[in-house]
Design goal:
By secondary structure, the chain is an all-beta fold. Helices cover 1% and strands 37% of the residues.
Length: 401
């Protein structure tokens, strides 16, 4: 996707908002919804055992990988200096957390707990929240992922469904050497992710992996592949996708970039949706269980979005500033992030679009992590790609079956 060096690929199915020009490369000279410059941006389960204080990361291979990590030293190991501000007034554990904007105090039988779970680096001046959301949300830069080469383009990310302290990240996005990596995350007093720990380990080879990684209840990982226009499925414990579906054969125009599932409460709860880059065409997909994987069929386009969309996610119900259901979309080509009202089918209404970020450097992936609802997304082609995290949202519903 975005600016790969002339990848000659005729397959269909690469997930992520990729934007090829006539030479098969992503283009970056477009304009966004606010008139600014734009460009084009460009699975796997791991288990962490923190019950025993081991002294290093001992990875094995495949989805479902077990990583034994040190439980006694939560010090951050990223290349960025700074300290994590986690202060507690009691050692008690709290079961209720509120994250407006990133700070809250909850009370348990053992006393109050100060939820000052703030990553050490606030977002820089190139990250500008829209005024109507600025009072509710706060953005931090988690930075580059330790262990992933600094010249690797990043795609989507997702928390392992077997361990909430393991983040799966797409690296070498939109290339034949695409991979999924696993990295341990450090959580604060109230479970917000505040840093990385250790170095990332490769858990699967996932060619052309792009903007969205999406798990279902079984641990099966779906990912989009750009620019080959495919959606692939990676089984737990496997080092390579078991199924790759050619989206062109289903009538999806080149190439899929983002994918996701409609949350509970909608007419088509659990239904699969995908979007393309650069065209922004939005499709319904049927998925039917076939053993441990799914057959994907019956692609139906229902709408289209502007501004070169990549990753998308449904805003968790009850999040501040969202009185009705919305979709959030990383708009790589415009350097913005937009939000859209959605109808009862879970489809975005293009005329309802408004800015969530007025400016953001090459946003690509989009994901709400399950414990706190913190929004995580990655840059694609913004120098040395990195991960950002936004505090203030409610937790999302469980993953679908």
């Amino acid at each position: 996707m975005h600016r790969h060096t002339a990848i000659a690929v005729t397959l269909s199915g690469l997930a992520g908002a990729a934007c090829p020009d006539n030479a098969g490369m992503m283009t970056t000279a477009t304009t966004g919804p606010t008139g600014g410059p734009s460009g084009d941006p460009g699975g796997v389960s791991a288990t962490l055992d923190t019950a025993d204080a081991t002294t290093d990361v001992t990875p094995t291979t495949g989805v479902g990988t077990t990583m034994a990590v040190t439980a006694t030293d939560p010090a951050p190991t990223t290349g960025t200096t700074g300290t994590t501000a986690n202060s507690t007034t009691d050692e008690s554990t709290s079961t209720a957390t509120t994250t407006n904007p990133g700070t809250t105090t909850t009370t348990t039988t053992g006393g109050p707990v100060d939820c000052s779970d703030e990553p050490p680096i606030p977002a820089g001046p190139d990250v500008v929240l829209a005024p109507e959301f600025a009072e509710f949300y706060k953005t931090y830069e988690l930075g580059q992922v330790p262990g992933i080469p600094t010249d690797s383009r990043l795609g989507g990310c997702v928390i392992s469904n077997t361990d909430p302290n393991v983040l799966l990240v797409a690296g070498d996005s939109e290339t034949a050497t695409g991979k999924v990596w696993a990295i341990e995350v450090v959580r604060g007093n109230c479970d917000h992710i505040v840093n990385f720990k250790g170095v990332a380990q490769i858990v699967a080879e996932t060619p052309y992996v792009d903007a969205n990684l999406a798990l279902v209840e079984s641990g099966l990982l779906f990912y989009t592949a750009w620019p080959v226009n495919q959606i692939s499925q990676l089984l737990p414990g496997q080092m390579a996708p078991g199924v790759s579906t050619d989206m062109a054969a289903l009538g999806v125009e080149n190439s899929v970039s983002g994918l996701g599932f409609v949350p509970p409460g909608f007419v088509d709860a659990g239904g699969m949706r995908t979007i393309t880059w650069p065209g922004g065409k939005w499709y319904h997909l049927d998925r039917t269980a076939n053993g441990n994987t799914f057959d994907l069929t019956n692609a139906q386009q229902t709408t289209a979005l502007l501004f070169g969309p990549g990753g998308f996610a449904y805003v968790p119900d009850g999040s501040p500033g969202f009185a009705v259901d919305h979709l959030i979309v990383s708009e790589w080509s415009a350097g913005t992030v937009g939000v859209y009202r959605v109808d009862d089918q879970g489809d975005p209404l293009p005329e309802s679009r408004k800015d969530f970020y007025l400016d953001f450097p090459s946003p690509w992936g989009a994901y709400f992590e399950p414990l706190t609802g913190d929004f995580m997304f990655l840059t694609w082609g913004a120098g040395q790609d990195r991960i950002y995290i936004v505090q203030g949202f409610e937790p999302p519903p469980p993953v679908p079956q």
